[in-house]
Design goal:
By secondary structure, this protein is an alpha+beta fold. It has 2 helices and 5 strands, in the order H-E-E-E-H-E-E. The structure holds adenosine monophosphate and zinc ion. The site of adenosine monophosphate has 10 residues, from loops.
């Protein structure tokens, strides 16, 4: 699996930087955002260092399908309320104009009662 020694999210996934872990398996790591926009705000990342969504191609279809299938399960486990009254927002920032600050592919999952701090 590809890792980047200077990447903060690779270090979080490896347990080298502490985080509030929401989920972990062989392929994925989920942890609560340090600066939450919503009552529930966690990030889910592939452990493999993929810099952004711009780097995805057909070879990632299985990995990304498994990640997407995890999202509703983790949303409920972290306190998002059930659809349709509850639900969640899924966001991926890509590149400078997409607002990406950390260049390790990550999906923001936000939910919980409104109003939110942002968004
Ligand atoms: P972006 O790259 O713009 O999609 O956002 C990166 C996100 O990572 C921001 O929401 C940050 O609050 C979050 N973040 C940065 N460092 C940490 C950390 N050490 N632990 C948890 N979340 C972090
Ligand atoms: Zn990384």
């Amino acid at each position: 699996m590809e890792h980047d020694a200077s990447c903060i999210f690779c270090k979080i996934a490896a347990g080298q930087i502490p985080s509030r872990v929401a989920y972990e398996d062989a392929e994925f790591f989920a942890f609560h955002d340090i600066n939450p926009w919503a009552p529930v705000h966690f990030l889910i990342i592939p452990k493999a260092h993929i810099p952004s969504m711009a780097h995805l191609d057909a070879s990632h279809a299985g990995l990304m399908g498994r990640l997407m299938a995890l999202v509703p399960q983790l949303a409920l486990q972290t306190g998002c309320r059930p659809y349709p009254q509850g639900g969640f927002r899924l966001v991926t920032n890509t590149g400078a104009e997409g607002g990406q600050e950390i260049h390790h592919l990550h999906f923001h999952v936000m939910g919980g009662p409104r109003p939110w701090a942002r968004g």
